[in-house]
Amino acid sequence: IYSDRFIVDRARGRERKDEVCTIRSKFPNKLPVIVERYLREKKLPLLDKTKFLVPHENKIVLEASQALHLLISGKNMSCLSASMGEVYSQFRDPDGFLYITYASQDMFG
């Protein structure tokens, strides 16, 4: 389900844990998030970067005509009304990053 360039390499877990500790000490009000486009996604653009620092209270705001599907940590769909802090608390990886895959259509259908 992850894209080919998704940054989940368990051998480098310690390095990412250290990176998260550094980030959280410098930016205690931000969450470390890695965002990648779904491998088979055709409509939504690739992002210029994959690592983001996101405020705890951020929420996604979409028009009624827009659709966005998120896969969290490779397995869980997120309720788009939840704050990033809530999603991070529930689904963050043991390395401390929250991994999100985005798509314009349901990835399971």
TrEMBL record:
Topology in the lipid bilayer: Lipid-anchor
Keywords from the UniProt entry: Autophagy, Cytoplasm, Cytoplasmic vesicle, Lipoprotein, Membrane
Annotated lipid attachment (Phosphatidylserine amidated glycine): 109
Annotated localization: Cytoplasmic vesicle, Autophagosome; Endomembrane system
Database matches in SUPFAM superfamilies: Ubiquitin-like
Record's keyword annotation contains Kinase: no
Listed GO CC annotations: autophagosome; cytoplasmic vesicle; endomembrane system
Main location group: cytoplasm
GO biological process per UniProt: macroautophagy; response to stress
Tree of life domain: Eukaryota
The family this protein is said to belong to: Belongs to the ATG8 family.
The protein's name in its UniProt record: Microtubule-associated proteins 1A/1B light chain 3C-like
Organism: Sinocyclocheilus rhinocerous
Gene behind this protein: LOC107730672
